[in-house]
Amino acid sequence: MDARQLWLRFEPYHDVTYFTPESRAATDALGCKGGWMGYFGMRAAPLGAASPELVTAVFYNFAPRMVSRALPDAWEIASPEEFLRARLEGVDGALRRLLGDVDTPVVEEAASLARAAALAAPIAGRPLAAANRALPWPVEPHLALWHACTILREARGDGHVAALVAHDVGPCQALALYAREHSLDPAYMRAARGWTVEEWEAVSDLPGDLPAVERATDAAALTPWEALGEGPTSRFIDLMTPLALRIASANEAMRVNPMALDPVRELAVPGWNT
């Protein structure tokens, strides 16, 4: 099993949570002041009315000042429960636009497999995965699939943070190393996570074994798929590939992203859209 290949298939499905016009419209309707307030409100909402210090710690790679511009003010605008309703509304609208017909046997089967994997994902020491898994499961299959992908995504992300901490790679340092390794524009990465030029330059030359971090992240992320089994996991890959590609090719907001995620190029499935 290849953890990255699995990630490439569930990450695009999860990313509609924040980076679509439907998502922005849902949080604008709550009264959020800008897209980042909506992002922090929606992503942190499973934790309750979390403090900016807690969210900075859990999200890991955002500068504290960027988080504090959104929180705790977001909780004065709307409750965590209202943010959860808004994110589900945005997800529903985005998936219906990007996929067209969401009521299909493919989506239903993928949702069943993803749910089994998500329920097997470890949550010890993984606060975002645990908080999302504690939420009620949506009834509609396309939303149940999204919920499972979100749990799997946050479980992987929590594991990545643990690996960074274990390898003594700090938040800004991790971004600088990643930007260098993937030829990402440092100015874009700094702006996307709120770091100053001075903070970036202070850590850019520090050593850090990012490949070891990625190996540890991938190893930890295989747990739910090992529990699911090789056959069902292969079936999940087959089912999710066209869904991930359709979303990735149509979601303009994800053309450039701090994860250097490009499923259309990396999956490279001939004739997938025919």
Q: How would you portray this structure in words?
A:
With 274 residues, the chain is an all-alpha fold. The chain has helices spanning 3-15, 21-30, 35-44, 52-59, 64-68, 73-77, 80-99, 105-120, 127-133, 141-166, 171-181, 186-193, 197-204, 210-221, 223-228, 230-250, 263-267. 43% of the residues are buried.
Q: Which strand-content bin applies to the residues?
A: under 5%
The average pLDDT value, as a whole number, equals 94
CA-based shape: globular
Class based on secondary structure composition and strand pairing: mainly alpha
Give me the strand/helix succession.
HHHHHHHHHHHHHHHHH
Number of strands: 0
Gyration radius over CA: 18 Å
Report, as a whole number of angstroms, the end-to-end distance.
Answer: 28 Å
Q: Any low-confidence stretches, pLDDT <50, length ≥5? A: 270-274
Query: Biggest β-sheet: count, sense, barrel?
Result: none
Helix tally?
A: 17
Helix-residue proportion: 55-70%
Protein name: SalK
InterPro entries: HTH_67 (IPR054058)
Pfam families: HTH_67
